[in-house]
Amino acid sequence: MIDRSKLESLVRGALVEVLGEDRAKDRPIDATGALVIPPDRGVNLRSPFDPEALRALIAAQPARICVGRTGVGTRYRTNTLLRFRADHAAAKDAVTSEVAPALLAKLGLFEVKTRATDKRHFLQRPDAGRALSDEARATIAEKCRRGPRVQIIYGDGLSAAALNEHLETYHRALEKELGAAELDNTPFFVRYSRVKVMDEIARLVDAEAALFVCGERPGLGYSDSLSAYYIYKPGAGATDANREVISNINPRGIEPARAAKLTADAIARILRERKSGVVMD
Asked: What is the pTM of this model?
């Protein structure tokens, strides 16, 4: 999806860089004639065998289907190729972007880091994003209440864009739900983090359960989805089989406020049942 206001913002930024702020502010910008990639799903199929079934299939999910082909039958049409490249660019931007410090300040979240020193290190060394730095351990021990029933953790994961877009809505709703359940804690943000860091944090603060909310790995279409992982008493050898997840949290999937309610209900369940994940009795 192309946002004309973002196009104008990009052009304005380029003008400021080239001309300076004083000269750039007097230059009008009109993006109404900007190229918007036309739709391709279904449109490229000129004479479908069953038009009604085609419409139902397209409406059921956002996958890149029914886009047709051209030439000898092995090439995408131009609009499909442009959409593919635009989605790929959005996915790359989501992975390499950073969560805005102003957002964290607005939500009252303090920040710590993993052993990853920067974004490049984080992407190249997944193990570094799974362990806290020494400074982070000290900060968490100082600022977090020990022995909470659940510890809430936010992390950038592989889409900082997802947090920039949806964290405020999700966090506000989750605070309300957990407050009603009397599950008070000290939420915070871990930069350059991956899911497994939640296990170390839970053990550090002696939490009965932990919740880690991060940006999902972007797909070709969605680059702003959150995932909420939760686990009950993770031991040193905990694996993904011990945790559960609610994914596809975005306005087109599970709306963030509704996802917060589902998350709170799931946390209440694992606390009540004293287990999470795939547990063989």
From this structure: 0.81
